[in-house]
Amino acid sequence: MVAQIPVCHSDRNTIVLLHARTLALTEVSCERLQSRGVDLAQHLGYRPNGIVKGSEAARAMSAEAKRSDGRIRSVEDGGVVASLQSIGAFEDIKPLANKNVAKALRKLGMLRDDEYLIENGSSQGEPLLIIELPSYFRASVGDEPTLQDDYKVGGYNYFMAETMLNESTLAFCKQNPSGCPNFNNFTTFKVRKLQRLENVDVFEQYKRHETMVARKMKSRGLASNETNSLPNWLKKLSQKNGLSSEANGVYLLHGTKSTNLDLIVEHGLKTKFSLDRGLSYGKGLYFTDNACKASQFTARDGVILVCRVVLGRQEILPRTCPRKLFPDFGYDSAMAKRNHTDAPHAHKQLHNEYIIYDDCSCYPEFAIHFDLS
């Protein structure tokens, strides 16, 4: 959500602006913001014994002083005193817990029911992160992880999933089945069941990581266009569901056995569950943009997961690459490019593979159960 600071015409507008910056709220009236100023001050860096050095409040007041020849309107207008009072500096007003803040904001219409606040874990008054659950989620905060069967069997979504899997299968593998193991026995995918994974805690971890990577990429002026080779349907799905282009967020495929699905629903994908054998580029989580590659890691009743993945800054693995335990310094993920990287066991790299080494970098969202014909 992009910060747009409300223009407020009042004697205490400065504290309102500070709160607006912190929450990155849009289209919120000054009256509503000011009415919650007491509850939000602690997140700006105000403490009972003063203001945290380097906090949002400290930086904003410093900027005020530069703009106004040393004058700080937020002090003159009483905003700073009010904020310090609100978090207990004078022991007459106590701070509210984060859940209470979110509850108050919902009551005022400043947060929807499917949005909630999490702290970024910093004592430096960094902005709150507003997490918005996907509009199609049934789950809300506090619900148990679940698999949803919302999709009509044989309906439009089944048809689209089946079409997308078959379209993402490389033409090379169809023409040269000996180079792609699964193509010795099948030619097309047939979708048997389509489900959606809903785990709010794992989604929160993913969004927190996505935000961190996006900020890092922006601060360093980094960008990546290495995902231009993705099939169009993965690109369109990423755009439709609002994946962060700033964090190089994309949808990718991950093949697994159906017996693993309950564990994945409960905990998400975990590096510690990866088997050492068969992992060409080290112990990480492997994804691909080709259904034929993903299907190599499934059994007869296997599942292909469509996952949100934060790639951040990608390391393109060299032609000869050793096994890894983590990405090289300065990178968030690794990519083994088709016809470019050769695996340590000397097999030719026929498909694109994307490797992450941080569990929070992905969120498994859709499960496609399929048969091979």
UniProtKB/TrEMBL annotation:
<keyword id="KW-0472">Membrane</keyword>
<dbReference type="GO" id="GO:0005634">
    <property type="term" value="C:nucleus"/>
</dbReference>
<keyword id="KW-0808">Transferase</keyword>
<dbReference type="GO" id="GO:0016020">
    <property type="term" value="C:membrane"/>
</dbReference>
<dbReference type="InterPro" id="IPR012317">
    <property type="entry name" value="Poly(ADP-ribose)pol_cat_dom"/>
</dbReference>
<dbReference type="GO" id="GO:0003950">
    <property type="term" value="F:NAD+ poly-ADP-ribosyltransferase activity"/>
</dbReference>
<keyword id="KW-0328">Glycosyltransferase</keyword>
<keyword id="KW-0520">NAD</keyword>
<keyword id="KW-1133">Transmembrane helix</keyword>
<protein>
    <recommendedName>
        <fullName>Poly [ADP-ribose] polymerase</fullName>
        <ecNumber>2.4.2.-</ecNumber>
    </recommendedName>
</protein>
<dbReference type="Pfam" id="PF00644">
    <property type="entry name" value="PARP"/>
</dbReference>
<comment type="similarity">
    <text>Belongs to the IFI6/IFI27 family.</text>
</comment>
<dbReference type="Pfam" id="PF06140">
    <property type="entry name" value="Ifi-6-16"/>
</dbReference>
<dbReference type="InterPro" id="IPR051712">
    <property type="entry name" value="ARTD-AVP"/>
</dbReference>
<keyword id="KW-0812">Transmembrane</keyword>
<dbReference type="GO" id="GO:1990404">
    <property type="term" value="F:NAD+-protein mono-ADP-ribosyltransferase activity"/>
</dbReference>
<dbReference type="InterPro" id="IPR038213">
    <property type="entry name" value="IFI6/IFI27-like_sf"/>
</dbReference>
<feature type="domain" description="PARP catalytic">
    <location>
        <begin position="145"/>
        <end position="373"/>
    </location>
</feature>
<dbReference type="InterPro" id="IPR009311">
    <property type="entry name" value="IFI6/IFI27-like"/>
</dbReference>
